[in-house]
Amino acid sequence: MLKYAVLAMTFGSGLILIGYEDQARMKGWPVGELLSGDASFMKLPAFGCILSSVAISFFAFQWWSLFVTIGLGFTYGFLASQIMKSWVQFPAILGAISGFILCPLWVL
C-alpha cells in the first residue's frame, strides 16, 4: 500500500509541476523561476516522473494498478494545489525529485 502512495506522490508532483504555471497565472499566484516558461527546467523531469510512475505501476503490480496510481496522483495533485496554493511549488519539486529516485529503487 505504501508503494502506491510513493507512485501516486510522484505522479501528482509531476502533474503539479507541469500544470502549476497556468493555474497560478489564472489565480494571480506567484510563479517561481524554475516553473516559469514553456520549456522550463523542471517540466521535462516532471514528465519523466509521470511516465515512470505509471510504467512502474503497470509492470511491478497488476495491469489495473496504473489506474489506481493515476487516480490517486490526480487527487493528490488537485488537493495539494488547492490547499497549499502558491506554496505548493517547493514541495512539488522535492516530491518529484525524491519520487524520481525512490520509484525505481524502492518500489521495484
Characteristics:
single chain, 108 residues, 0% strand
Describe this structure in words.
By secondary structure, the chain is an all-alpha fold. The protein has one domain. 77% of the residues lie in helices and 0% in strands. The protein contains 4 helices and no strands. It has helices at 2-27, 43-60, 65-84, 89-107. Helix 1 (2-27) crosses helix 3 (65-84). The protein is elongated, with a radius of gyration of 13 Å. The mean pLDDT is 89.
Percent strand: under 5%
Helical fraction equals over 70%
Topology as a string of helices (H) and strands (E): HHHH
Mean of pLDDT: 89
Cα separation of the termini? 14 Å
The global form is elongated
Low-confidence stretches: none
Radius of gyration: 13 Å
Produce the secondary structure layout.
Elements: H1 2-27, H2 43-60, H3 65-84, H4 89-107
Brief digest:
By secondary structure, this protein is mainly α. Helix content is 77%, strand content 0%.
